[in-house]
Amino acid sequence: MFTEKRRMNLCPDINVSLSCPVSCGKCCEDSSTYKFNIKTNKKKKCKYLKTNERKNEFCGDKKVKAECALRCRNCQDDVAVKPDYEAKCIDTKEKFIIDESTEKTCRQIINNNMNLCDTNELVLNNCPVACGLC
After folding, report:
1. What is the 3-state secondary structure (H, E, C) of the chain?
2. Which is nearest to 74 in space by CA: 93, 92, 61?
3. How much is the pTM?
4. Which neighbouring-strand residues pair with 39?
5. Distance CA 97, CA 121 (A)
6. Residues 23 and 62 sit within 8 Å (Cβ to Cβ)
7. In degrees rounded to 5, what are phi and psi of residue 36?
8. In sequence order, what are the beta bridge partners of 68?
9. CB of 2 within 8 A of CB of 79?
10. 20 to 30 Å CA-CA from 29: which of 17, 64, 112, 131?
11. What is the pLDDT of residue 102?
12. Burial zone of 40 (CB within 10 Å; 0-12 exposed, 13-18 middle, 19+ buried)
């Protein structure tokens, strides 16, 4: 599940919205295939979360909360897709300015393990492949 800031940055892209409909608020449903551990070697699907006791026990887990969005009451508000958005899944080859004094390429960002994809919108826009958006 995206953080609210990432939802607002990413979900206006039609490709992200289509790939992540629950996170982007296009629908609210439980995964039909996801299973989570309730005990060692015992897994259950989202429909196991029928009671408030079970929801309280398991919905605190981020993965369960995301995959069982309906039963964990984790439905998101819809984020509108930009009508003129042209999806591009190509990283910029040239250096671009990240902040007032730093210029980097997408490759340098990946090689230096910089976590700028989560914090810098300019990096997300220039490096969609490096940031795992495509």
Report:
1. CCCHHHHHHHCCCHHHHHHCCCCCCCCCCECCCCEEEEECCEEEEHHHCCCHHHHHHHCCCHHHHHHECCCCCCCCCCCCCCCCCCCCCCCCCCCEEEECCEEECHHHHHHCCCCCCCCCHHHHHHCCCCCCCC
2. 61
3. 0.55
4. 42
5. 12
6. no
7. -125, 155
8. 30
9. no
10. 131
11. 80
12. exposed
Residues in contact with 16: Cβ distance below 8 Å, sequence separation at least 6, in sequence order: 10, 24, 133
Task: Record the tokens describing residue 75, joined without a space.
Answer: 């439905």
Total number of residues shown for the chain: 134
What tens digit of pLDDT does each residue of 39-92 get? 888 999 999 999 999 999 999 999 999 999 999 999 999 888 876 555 567 888
Of 134, 108, 110, 104, the C-alpha closest to 122 is 104
Residue 42: strand pairing partners = 39
